[in-house]
Write a structure and sequence with these properties.
single chain, about 190 residues, alpha+beta, 2 domains
Length: about 190
C-alpha cells in the first residue's frame, strides 16, 4: 500500500471551543492525472524542460497533443504522468491547478475518482453533521487557531472514525491537529 503524501491544503471547521483542521491527504494513485489535461503556466516551461531533459518545444508539443486529443473527445492521461508508477514526472514544478487539487480548485475533484477527495469530503460531512453552532466572531485565520481540547479528543476521534477513513488519514489528521499521542490509539 502506498503511504499517503503530506496533507495540504486543509479546511478549518470552527467548533464552539476549538477548531478542527481537515486535511486533504493524497493517496498517490494518479487518478487525478488520468484523462486530464492540465493548464501549464508559460513561466514553468523552462524548468519543466530542464527537469525532463527536453527542449521547451518538445514540452509544448506534448501539451498541444494532449489538448488536441481532449478537444477531439479522446482524453488521454496527462503527458507528465508516469503510467508505470502513477507518479508525476514534474511534481516539484507542477502547475498551480495541480498543486491546488482538489480542495482549492473550486470544483473539488469533479469527475475524478479520487480516494483522497472521498475521505476529505466524508470527514467534512461527518464533522458538519455533528457540529454544534460555531461561535460568532472572527474567522479562525483572523483570531488564531484554537487547538482541540484534550477532553474533546475522544469525541473528535469518534466522529473521524464514523467517516470511514484510512489509517494514513487518521495519522495525518491527529498530527496536524496536535492531538495527544494517547488519543491516536483510541
Amino acid at each position: 500500500m502506498n503511504r499517503p503524501a503530506p496533507a495540504h491544503p486543509h479546511k478549518v471547521i470552527a467548533c464552539r471551543e476549538y477548531d478542527i483542521l481537515v486535511p486533504f491527504v493524497c493517496h498517490r494513485c494518479g487518478a487525478c492525472c488520468r484523462k486530464y489535461e492540465p493548464v501549464v503556466e508559460f513561466e514553468l516551461l523552462p524548468e519543466i524542460a530542464r527537469g525532463l531533459g527536453a527542449s521547451i518545444d518538445v514540452i509544448q508539443d506534448r501539451l498541444l497533443n494532449d489538448r488536441l486529443s481532449h478537444s477531439a473527445g479522446r482524453p488521454t492521461d496527462c503527458c507528465f504522468l508516469d503510467p508505470l508508477h502513477a507518479r508525476c514526472f514534474i511534481y516539484a514544478v507542477r502547475p498551480t491547478e495541480c498543486r491546488q487539487f482538489p480542495p482549492l480548485t473550486g470544483v473539488g475533484a469533479g469527475v475524478v475518482d479520487c480516494p483522497g477527495y472521498r475521505e476529505y469530503r466524508s470527514v467534512l460531512d461527518e464533522f458538519t453533521a455533528c457540529m454544534e453552532e460555531a461561535p460568532r466572531g472572527p474567522a479562525p485565520a483572523a483570531r488564531g487557531r484554537r487547538p482541540i481540547l484534550p477532553d474533546a479528543c475522544r469525541d473528535v476521534l469518534h466522529t473521524l472514525t464514523a467517516a470511514q477513513i484510512s489509517d494514513g488519514y487518521r495519522e495525518v489528521f491527529t498530527q496536524i491537529n496536535d492531538m495527544p499521542d494517547s488519543s491516536r490509539s483510541i
